[in-house]
């Protein structure tokens, strides 16, 4: 059968990729403390322990503050970069945009160590704020990619019509352009939020004494009795990530359809 080998490869690849995620809820609802088959029974005690853990709640609160702040900052900066790259021509445009997109290809361990050295050398104390700086840096390229697609899909005649009707550049951007790219803005916010919430390496280097959710999970892996609770937490995070990515993709496709552009691919 034509393409049969490729289909088998695709099935095996997807099984290898998603089988660990499927196992998370299985062990999260398993009453046994040992992560192994056969399963002993059904329980929701691990979820109860998760919500009753004060340290985990603090780590979750820190991660939410970091994720929201990073998403807003990355999206705001991404609007400027995407607007400039799609609407204007200026010297060294290619190299500048390449520098903005550089965190996509640089190893996060290099970015983390570089930020750590720079921040400590200028006397900045490690805190939630330093993690926000790092997460904004790595989220911005994703925001620029999403927003560039949104701005490229715009019909420039609408902007020109606003100018003809007496609007200034600022008012035309606020009243005409922003509403049209709003699905892209929401998609960028959700994508950046998800990336920041799941990010570990930069948080590990820059958080100082403030725990974040990924660093807390890493610290608990040393204790076997905590593993089922971590499985429950992982299940919640997977569900949250899937929901956020689905919403982001919905708004991205809605924005493409609204502006009459061509869908060149997405997250899902």
TrEMBL record:
Keywords, comma-separated and alphabetical: Cell membrane, Membrane, Transmembrane, Transmembrane helix, Transport
Topology in membrane: Multi-pass membrane protein
Keyword Transmembrane listed: yes
Domain ABC transmembrane type-1: 60-248
Subcellular location: Cell membrane
Pfam families in alphabetical order: BPD_transp_1
Keyword Nucleotide-binding carried by entry: no
Segments traversing the membrane: 12-39, 59-84, 96-122, 128-154, 175-207, 227-248
SUPFAM superfamilies recorded: MetI-like
Main location: membrane
Domain of life: Bacteria
Database matches in InterPro entries: Bact_Polyamine_Transport (IPR051789), MetI-like (IPR000515), MetI-like_sf (IPR035906)
Protein family: Belongs to the binding-protein-dependent transport system permease family. CysTW subfamily.
The protein, known as: ABC transporter permease
UniProt organism field: Paracoccus cavernae
